[in-house]
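Inverse folding, one chain.
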């Protein structure tokens, strides 16, 4: 079934005034998501929040939507504030031994560099390696590999299925930050088999800041204790009339990592955005995003640019002799929004973009270079 991309685009009001090609920084939130958020606040006013326990039932339905998107079960999903929070669970929750090693790739998003580096005070080695030397960097002391599903600077998409299989054979945990692809490119946890996948929805999932989730594999849940413990930590927390007051008995599901209340309004909005993605079809979205990204590469090459990524929604381009920061500012003056990252101009179209946006980009670049 064909997609009415004009109708899809109409859901994003910011696109009326901007040529927006910067989803790798921020995704646009559709009207239906903001309406869902507003509806929740109206509902609170109507019932004075007496039905708050039923909101958790709604959150379980959002878990089901996430499960459909990344191909897992409801019980595998916990809501978190952001990807940093998910990574902190591993850093703070694993039973580390002196001499253990954490490996990541050079140029990774700061989360994956900062968080493991603090383990140095506990005698844990932290290694940043090039992709070419990645497999050699994983030795018999390596406990964890923390990488992104796409590099935020270059757009490089590592072969996660291959990496995961390599690590499983060696008993090494795999943490994946999927914030830069999930919502644009398809992700199947059954194929990749990460131990943890963290996704902050404010980029490619078109959700508000603070709406994030983590997939925690059943095997990891057996060895990873919660680091946030609160009134929802006991498996019987729904009995709010008579909450448990002994030592908490944790549930087997990933929900045990949430601890307390949830940012309901934000998660309702994220649920609406994921519904939208599922209605359009993740396969159709991936084809459109990659097709638009390839057209951006062709525009860049025609204007003397050198794209450094392929098969990625993130198009990072080097323009020899040009500093991308003032170039990005010049484009902004023309209402074309892109980003500059570490010497590269980063252009990141999403499914709500169209060929008219790319024509505006081409014209703006032509007059700015």
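Residues assigned per position:
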């Amino acid at each position: 079934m064909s997609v009415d991309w004009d109708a899809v685009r109409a859901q994003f009001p910011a696109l009326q005034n901007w040529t927006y090609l910067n989803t790798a920084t921020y995704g646009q939130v559709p009207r239906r998501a903001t309406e869902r958020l507003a509806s929740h606040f109206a509902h609170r006013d109507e019932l004075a929040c007496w039905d708050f326990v039923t909101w958790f039932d709604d959150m379980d339905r959002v878990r089901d939507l996430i499960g459909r998107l990344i191909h897992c079960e409801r019980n595998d999903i916990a809501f978190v504030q952001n990807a940093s929070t998910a990574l902190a669970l591993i850093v703070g929750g694993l039973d580390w031994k002196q001499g253990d090693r954490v490996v990541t790739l050079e140029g990774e998003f700061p989360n994956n560099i900062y968080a493991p580096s603090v383990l140095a005070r506990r005698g844990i080695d932290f290694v940043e390696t090039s992709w070419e030397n990645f497999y050699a960097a994983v030795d018999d002391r390596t406990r964890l590999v923390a990488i992104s599903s796409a590099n935020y600077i270059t757009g490089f998409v590592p072969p996660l299925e291959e990496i995961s299989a390599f690590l499983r054979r060696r008993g090494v945990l795999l943490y994946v930050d999927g914030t830069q692809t999930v919502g644009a490119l398809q992700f199947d946890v059954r194929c990749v088999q990460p131990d943890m996948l963290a996704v902050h929805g404010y980029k490619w999932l078109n959700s508000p800041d603070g709406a994030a989730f983590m997939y925690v594999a059943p095997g990891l849940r057996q060895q990873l204790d919660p680091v946030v413990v609160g009134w929802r930590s006991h498996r019987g927390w729904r009995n709010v009339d008579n909450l448990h007051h002994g030592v908490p008995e944790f549930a087997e599901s990933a929900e045990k990592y949430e601890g307390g209340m949830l940012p309901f309004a934000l998660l309702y909005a994220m649920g609406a955005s994921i519904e939208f993605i599922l209605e359009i079809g993740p396969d159709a979205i991936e084809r459109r995003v990659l097709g638009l990204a390839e057209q951006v590469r062709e525009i860049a090459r025609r204007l003397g640019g050198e794209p450094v990524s392929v098969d990625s929604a993130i198009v990072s381009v080097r323009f020899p002799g040009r500093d991308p920061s003032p170039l990005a500012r010049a484009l902004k003056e023309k209402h074309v929004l892109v980003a500059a990252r570490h010497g590269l101009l980063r252009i990141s179209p999403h499914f709500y973009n169209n060929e008219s946006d790319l024509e505006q980009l081409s014209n703006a670049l032509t007059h700015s270079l």
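The mean pLDDT is 96. Residues 3 and 281 are 9 Å apart (CA to CA).
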